[in-house]
Amino acid sequence: MIGKPASRLFLGLAVLVAALQSAALAYIVVARDRLLKTGREVVLSVTPVDPRDLFRGDYVTLGYDITRISGDALAPRGDVPEGIERGGTFYAVLSLDAASNTWSVARVSADYPRGVGADEVVIKGRARAIYTTPATRQEAGTATLLGRYGIESYFVPEGTGRALEEKVRSHSIKAVVAVGADGTAALKGLIVDGERRDLPAIF
Amino acid sequence: MWGYQRRLARDLERWSKAGWVSAETADMIRADVARTPGLSLPGVLAMLASILLGFAVMSFVAAHWEEIPRLARLGLLFALLWTGYLAAAFFEARDMRIFRDAAIVAALAVFGATIMLISQMFHIDGNPPDGILMWWIGALGAGVILRSNPALAFAMVLVCVWSGVWMSERSGTHWPFLIGWVLVTAAFAWQRWWPGAHLSALALAGFVVSLGYTLTQGHAHVVPVVAGLSCALLAAAVEKRHDMVSDSARILIIYASAAAFAGLLALQFIEHTSARELAGLAAATLLLLLALIWHGLESRNRGALWLGYVAFSIEIFALYVKTVGTLLDTSLFFLIAGLILAGLAAFAWRLHKRQLHEVTA
To answer: Which domain does A144 fall in, by range?
Structure first.
């Protein structure tokens, strides 16, 4: 039969498992908190997403101007740089447009870019889709890279998503995003009708 | 387990009446069988309770209730996690194995819910499979450290969910599934837990079948057919030679055949096939299924036998649906198939009678 020492050993192991799992969870919380507090702040304009996809369950999907990358950002050849694959990571260099005070994609690369200016920010993304519109006789096909930066979901209390959804569609929302040194982005708050609302800090 | 106990009780009575087994020995055997752990009502209820509690916690997280501050919600889940593992230790000390395992599974559900809560708190949209990856690693770790079979089974289910979510988001094959599968299967083997072998075989068979849909733009159904058939043949070949691998081989035959059959179904009814190709494939499939049924009878592999019967019915039904419209052809097909089967039945009956004759002679 199982005696005292065996069950005491099990207690120790159970505490070990609980401690390991708690530590792993706490690590994410602390890392996120640090990112929000120390990351460089960037303001992005939010674009309306296809209404059918906009509101799913209890979160609002936020689309960004930097989600759809094409044209100048893919210069010089207007192609998606080599090494960026569907489902893989890529880095986008954001630069500030002084006139509208929002950030837009200057260039993209598969690896962490070198020679980033002081007024630029590197954000890490995942390539959701890469496609090229077919070339016509008048113009060459244009490549488009659809990125995903991990800041596209805004969770809301049950049943309060509709009002926010309307605001997104009327284009009066901007997002405040904290970007870490490695390019990881975290949603820090929203600017609704010019009024900034930060998400409450956890600690 | 129950079937075995019932059968054994019946046989013991017969044997003791015949005087082959003494009453004492029969009692000792009965006591031994009763001691081996199996399913019990309290155990099943406890397991179901822990699953319900897990869902309660997850819906609580999903409701995103703002009355409680976020840190308090997080603290509550951490407290539940610790309660689960401490309850497991409490039950272990009282030698209540099944309650212990139920508590561990509940704690693992809380672990997953906490991952969800954190991503909700920080509006992390990241890659959903990453969260599930962390979850199954947690379940595998708990299962190995605490030697809990249900936790390992939970880990295997999560590995499958992980791959499923990954594949639903992008096309392509999720090869990392194999890493998770190997790790959890190794843990099953280390625990010598037999139902785990079934779960592993089922998960792998599912993966092999999915290869047919993910490789070469979704037209690789030959892969599960070839892999399943060669696996089943190999297992059938070693089954009789080595006692040690015989049990695993018997399981393998069932799941490998199921994978091959799924591939054959896709080849016949999902791919575009000409009438002649379909006829050839259908004939091959039916013959293979007959071989499986024959093998099931021969080696007393009840699982293989049932799979053979069920797959045979599915195949016939699918053929009927596909060829319906030309009723005369359909009728002819079934007539021929019926005649062949009747002939085989007569042949098998002769064989059976001759064997019986040899044994009694």
So the answer is: 39-198
